[in-house]
Amino acid sequence: MQIKLETQIKNNIINFYPAAAIKIDGLRCIDGSSAAAATDLDGNLAALDGVERVLIAPDFISISHAAAAAVEELKMLVMSEIDDYFAAPYALTGNLSAQTEVQCAEALADALIRPTLNRDNGDIVIHGIKDGVMELSFTGHCAGCPYAANTLQNVIMRTFLRYMPQIKEIRQTEAK
Known about the structure:
By secondary structure, the chain is an alpha+beta fold. It folds into two domains: about 5-85, Ribosomal Protein S8, Chain: A, domain 1, CATH 3.30.1370.70; about 100-170, GMP Synthetase, Chain A, domain 3 (2-Layer Sandwich). Helix content is about 35%, strand content about 30%. The chain has helices at about 40-45, 70-85, 100-120, 150-165; strands spanning about 5-10, 15-20, 30, 50-55, 60-65, 120-130, 135-140, 170. A hairpin with a 4-residue loop joins strand 1 and strand 2. Helix 3 (about 100-120) crosses helix 4 (about 150-165). It starts with a strand and ends with a strand.
């Protein structure tokens, strides 16, 4: 199977985009220390040496790895696990919450939002999620940027609504 890769060297993240959809409802997020308790694709990936966190969505898999990990070998092992999954695909049932909702939001931000913000020397800080409302602040060059409101609505909000529909609103706050 063809799998597109995106490597974020600065953030120790590798995103994998398989050509076919992963049978999952929502997100699954697990850290490497929880791998022993997990089964399924995410548990297999989290158990790989050097993996710190796994985020699985219907259209991509994001792996956060230790800085010292053998990245090329890790890429091959992850692709092998993904190939094994698609050889006999099964539904990943339920949203695995081995990490908190905020930690999964952080993983999603690491995979899809921060790379764009970091290119402009900016970032976001997620302060929390309560009753479907996420609070975040912009930092670096994004703090006070005239385009921050546009980025919040057209990039950040759309991403979170797509992958974490339980988040109904995002409020920008001052850095804490």
